[in-house]
């Protein structure tokens, strides 16, 4: 019998079998760049940060983690290409597993969203194109971010970048992660190949939809062959225009990718809602991820501006299997519990999203029990 005080189970908190993993609920921690991995090495304070957000049978995706020394574009983001980085991640992964969580590493390459100071020997960042990214306001709305004009990758160099993703995936498994999510979204390197407003290549990686998707699918295949397709997810944002990375026909792009992925039998496809067009923009939109959901044969994750009600609706209407939360999970380390009780949520503080402080805006958001007055 359910006690009077216990809230009825909501759709987001129903169990789900994700491949070989038994999830106790469908509330997923989004991959969130936090910029607190000094010198690109994960730090001990990340042990607390991730373990705070771990629930038994809960799925978490790590912050975006660089696949090589050319993958960086921001201060103090973690990598997973050196032994030191792998060893540092082990302690964090162990803490998540000790609390019964399932933990995937998001592996990324920023491509042209970088500048020479983040690159080995001060070289130009690499991309699908040599067209530069225009300067833009940073998240604080004051400072201007500037980017070094990129160098277009030669056709014969692309396999070595694919290999960087493969090795990063191998390293993630070595660090104890349960799998990886390939970052194919938000204007970074994979997205720079996918989107026709950036990709101006004339080789087999440019032009047609099939050619523009080739790089992403080669990474999927290499990573799946290395660690097993059942440990691989990928994230796309076909409708978004982060970092001047838009597409003339995002629906066609999303559908092509969803169908193409079926061949590899990977664990999941994670897509960002069309309403999230760029950083912090949540707009009314006629487009939907439902066609991609229907086209993809595997597990489908959605992200982008979800709250408790929206998330429950997505599950009930079968628009998603799992719902991914970023800012709400950042500010509420016990988000699944708060959803269960329909408790009030902490407000997030945008000003401390990307500060390098090991505590402030990182591990100091309160839990429900510590707020009881």
TrEMBL record:
Protein name: Uncharacterized protein
Organism encoding this protein: Bauhinia variegata (Purple orchid tree)
């Amino acid at each position: 019998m359910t006690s009077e005080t216990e809230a009825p189970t909501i759709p987001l908190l129903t169990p789900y079998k994700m491949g070989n993993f038994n999830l106790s609920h469908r509330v997923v921690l989004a991959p969130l760049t936090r910029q607190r991995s000094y010198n690109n090495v994960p730090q001990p304070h990340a042990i607390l940060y991730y373990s705070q957000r771990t629930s038994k049978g809960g799925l978490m995706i790590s912050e975006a983690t660089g696949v090589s020394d050319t993958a960086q574009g921001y201060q103090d983001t973690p990598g997973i290409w050196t032994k030191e980085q792998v060893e540092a991640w082990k302690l964090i992964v162990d803490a998540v597993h000790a609390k019964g969580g399932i933990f995937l590493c998001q592996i990324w390459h920023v491509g042209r969203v970088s500048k020479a100071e983040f690159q080995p020997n001060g070289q130009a960042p690499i991309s699908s194109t040599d067209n530069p990214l225009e300067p833009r306001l940073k998240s604080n709305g004051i400072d201007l971010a500037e980017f070094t004009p990129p160098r277009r990758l030669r056709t014969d160099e692309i396999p070595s970048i694919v290999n960087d993703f493969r090795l990063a995936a191998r390293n993630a498994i070595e660090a104890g992660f349960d799998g990886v999510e390939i970052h194919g979204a938000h204007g970074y390197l994979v997205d720079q190949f996918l989107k026709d407003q950036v990709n101006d290549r004339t080789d087999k990686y440019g032009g047609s939809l099939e050619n523009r998707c080739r790089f992403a699918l080669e990474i999927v295949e290499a990573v799946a062959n290395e660690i097993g397709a059942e440990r691989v997810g990928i994230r796309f944002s076909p409708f978004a225009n982060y970092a001047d990375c838009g597409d003339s026909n995002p629906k066609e792009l999303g559908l092509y990718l969803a169908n193409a992925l079926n061949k590899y039998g990977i664990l999941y496809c994670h897509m960002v809602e069309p309403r999230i067009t760029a950083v912090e923009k949540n707009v009314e939109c006629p487009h939907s991820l439902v066609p991609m959901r229907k086209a993809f044969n595997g597990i489908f994750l959605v992200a982008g501006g979800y709250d408790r009600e929206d998330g429950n609706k997505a599950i009930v209407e079968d628009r998603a299997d799992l719902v991914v939360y970023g800012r709400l999970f950042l500010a509420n380390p016990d988000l699944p519990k708060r959803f269960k009780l329909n408790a009030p949520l902490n407000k997030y503080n945008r000003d401390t999203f990307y500060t390098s402080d090991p505590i402030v805006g990182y591990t100091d958001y309160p839990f429900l029990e510590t707020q009881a007055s």
